[in-house]
C-alpha cells in the first residue's frame, strides 16, 4: 500500500505542479503571432491602397522607365475599365490582318469599328504570318490582349476564340471573304450584316483599307481613334524596352527619328534602284517577281522617281536634311530595318551626320535578343521612338509614316517633316547639275516644306478617289478637337486645299 500510495503521490504531484511558466509561454506565443498577422495585414492594406491610387493595375509599364515625356499609349481616361456594353450579338467576326505592323494596326481599328456598327462579337484578330516579313508573332506577342478587351468592353464584345458550338461540328459554316475596300457604313449594313443571319461567323481574310476615310458618322471616326491611341497598347516587354530606348535618346539630347525606308523589300516592291549596282538591281527585280501580290513587274525606276513615287536614297536624304538646317551635331535615330547596301550606302550620310544611332547600338545584345527575327516586334520599338522623337522625318509615305504622323498630331501636333518627294527630286537634280546654287537650293527646299510640318489641317477629300485623298490615320482631325472648335484650330489658313 505504501508503494501504491507513493505512486499516487507522484502522479498527484505531477498533475498539481505549478503551471504558471507554461501558461505564460503560451500567452506570449499567441500574442506575438497575433501581432505578426495584424502587422502583415496592415502593411498589405497600405501597399494595395498606394498601388491603387497610383493606377498600378493599368499603368505599371509606364512607371518602370519613367521619363519627363508622356508615354505615347497612356491615357488617364482608361485607368479603370468601363462597364461592359450589353447587346444582342448578331454573330462573330473573325479577321486576318494582312501586311506589316502598321498596316495591321490600322486594320484592327477599322474592324473594331465595323463590329461596333453591326453589333457583332469580335474575335481577337489574327496577324499576318505569310507576307514578306514572315513574322510569326501572334496578337498577344505584340499587343496587351487583356487591356485591348477590357478597355473596349463598353463599345464591343471581344473574345479570344469562336465558341466550339459555332464550329463545323456544330452545324455552322464560316464564310470567308475580303470586304470591298474603302467601304462606308451603308455597305456594311446592307451587304455584310445579312451574311451573319445565315453563317453566324464571317471571316474577313483581308482587312487593309476596308473602311472609308471620310463620310462616316463622327462617333465611328472617334472610335477608330480610341482603338488606335488607347486600346492598342504594346505588351509590357515592348513597352518597357521602348521607354528605355526613348530615355537613353533623350538623355543624349534632342533627336530626329528618321524613317529611312531604303530597305530591300521597299525597293523591290517599288522598283526603285537609283544608286544600286547592276547586280543589286537584278536581285531586287527577282524578289519582285517572286511575290505575286507585288503586281507591277516592268518598272522604269527613273520614271517612278520623277513622279515622286520612290523613297529618297540615303544620299538624297542627307542633302535634304542639310538644306532643312540640320547640322553635324544632330542626333539621328534610324527607325528602319537593314539599309540595302549596308554601310556603303550609309557612308555619305554618316559623313554629313556622324551622330547616327540605331537601337542595336543603344541596347545590350541580350535586351534585344527576344525580339530578334520578329520584324513586327522590332518595328513596334521603332514606332514608339518615332512617336516620342523631337522631329520625325519619313523618306516614304508608307503605313508607318502615316500612322506615326497621326500619333504625333494626336500628341499635340509634334513636328513631322512630310517630304514632297516629287518637288525634291527636281531640286536635287538641278543642284547636282550645278544649275541651282546651294543657297537657292536650301531656300527652295525650306519654302516647299513650310506647310508640311504636321500643322493642324483638315484632310484632303477627293471624291471617288480614296487612294489619292489623305489617309484617315495620318490626320484624324475629328479626334483632334471638339467639333465646334475645329474651325478655330484647323481653319482656312491651316487647311490644305480640298479638291
UniProtKB/TrEMBL annotation:
Its main location: membrane. One of its GO terms (cellular component) is membrane. The keyword Glycosyltransferase applies. It is found in: Membrane. Pathway: Glycan metabolism. One of its GO terms (biological process) is fucose metabolic process. GO terms for molecular function: glycosyltransferase activity. Keywords: Carbohydrate metabolism, Fucose metabolism, Glycoprotein, Glycosyltransferase, Membrane, Signal-anchor, Transferase, Transmembrane, Transmembrane helix. The chain crosses the membrane at residues 28-47. Signal peptide: none annotated. InterPro entries: FucosylTrfase_pln, GDP-Fuc_O-FucTrfase. Belongs to the glycosyltransferase GT106 family. This is O-fucosyltransferase family protein.
Amino acid at each position: 500500500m505504501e508503494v501504491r500510495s507513493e505512486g499516487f503521490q507522484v502522479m498527484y504531484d505531477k498533475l498539481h505542479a505549478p503551471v504558471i511558466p507554461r501558461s505564460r509561454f503560451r500567452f506570449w506565443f499567441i500574442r506575438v503571432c497575433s501581432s505578426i498577422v495584424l502587422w502583415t495585414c496592415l502593411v498589405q492594406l497600405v501597399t494595395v491602397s498606394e498601388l491603387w491610387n497610383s493606377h498600378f493595375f493599368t499603368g505599371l509599364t509606364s512607371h518602370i522607365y519613367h521619363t519627363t515625356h508622356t508615354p505615347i499609349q497612356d491615357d488617364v481616361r482608361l485607368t479603370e475599365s468601363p462597364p461592359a456594353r450589353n447587346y444582342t450579338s448578331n454573330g462573330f467576326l473573325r479577321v486576318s490582318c494582312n501586311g506589316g505592323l502598321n498596316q495591321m494596326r490600322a486594320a484592327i481599328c477599322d474592324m473594331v469599328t465595323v463590329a461596333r456598327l453591326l453589333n457583332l462579337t469580335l474575335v481577337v484578330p489574327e496577324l499576318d504570318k505569310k507576307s514578306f516579313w514572315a513574322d510569326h508573332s501572334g496578337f498577344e506577342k505584340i499587343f496587351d490582349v487583356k487591356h485591348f478587351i477590357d478597355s473596349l468592353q463598353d463599345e464591343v464584345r471581344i473574345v479570344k476564340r469562336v465558341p466550339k458550338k459555332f464550329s463545323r461540328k456544330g452545324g455552322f459554316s464560316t464564310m470567308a471573304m475580303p470586304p470591298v475596300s474603302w467601304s462606308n457604313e451603308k455597305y456594311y449594313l446592307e451587304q455584310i450584316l445579312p451574311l451573319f443571319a445565315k453563317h453566324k461567323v464571317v471571316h474577313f481574310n483581308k482587312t487593309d483599307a476596308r473602311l472609308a476615310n471620310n463620310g462616316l458618322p463622327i462617333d465611328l471616326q472617334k472610335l477608330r481613334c480610341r482603338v488606335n491611341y488607347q486600346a492598342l497598347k504594346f505588351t509590357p516587354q515592348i513597352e518597357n524596352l521602348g521607354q528605355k530606348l526613348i530615355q537613353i535618346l533623350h538623355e543624349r539630347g534632342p533627336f530626329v527619328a528618321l524613317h529611312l525606308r531604303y530597305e530591300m523589300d521597299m525597293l523591290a516592291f517599288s522598283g526603285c534602284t537609283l544608286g544600286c549596282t547592276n547586280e543589286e538591281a537584278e536581285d531586287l527585280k527577282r524578289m519582285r517577281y517572286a511575290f505575286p501580290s507585288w503586281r507591277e513587274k516592268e518598272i522604269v525606276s527613273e520614271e517612278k522617281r520623277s513622279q515622286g513615287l520612290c523613297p529618297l536614297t540615303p544620299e538624297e536624304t542627307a542633302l535634304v536634311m542639310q538644306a532643312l538646317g540640320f547640322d553635324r551635331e544632330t542626333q539621328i535615330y534610324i527607325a528602319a530595318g537593314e539599309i540595302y547596301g549596308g554601310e556603303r550606302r550609309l557612308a555619305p550620310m554618316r559623313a554629313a551626320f556622324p551622330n547616327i544611332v540605331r537601337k542595336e547600338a543603344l541596347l545590350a545584345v541580350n535586351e534585344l535578343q527576344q525580339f530578334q527575327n520578329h520584324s513586327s516586334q522590332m518595328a513596334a520599338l521603332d514606332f514608339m521612338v518615332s512617336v516620342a522623337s523631337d522631329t520625325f522625318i519619313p523618306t516614304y509615305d508608307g503605313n508607318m509614316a502615316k500612322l506615326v504622323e497621326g500619333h504625333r498630331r494626336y500628341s499635340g501636333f509634334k513636328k513631322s517633316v512630310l517630304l514632297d518627294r516629287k518637288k525634291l527630286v527636281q531640286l536635287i537634280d538641278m543642284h547636282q547639275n550645278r544649275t541651282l546654287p546651294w543657297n537657292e537650293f536650301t531656300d527652295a527646299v525650306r519654302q516647299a516644306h513650310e506647310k508640311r510640318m504636321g500643322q493642324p489641317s483638315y484632310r484632303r477629300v477627293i471624291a471617288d478617289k480614296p487612294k489619292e485623298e489623305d489617309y484617315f490615320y495620318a490626320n484624324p482631325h475629328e479626334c483632334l478637337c471638339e467639333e465646334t472648335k475645329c474651325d478655330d484650330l484647323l481653319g482656312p489658313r491651316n487647311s490644305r486645299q480640298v479638291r
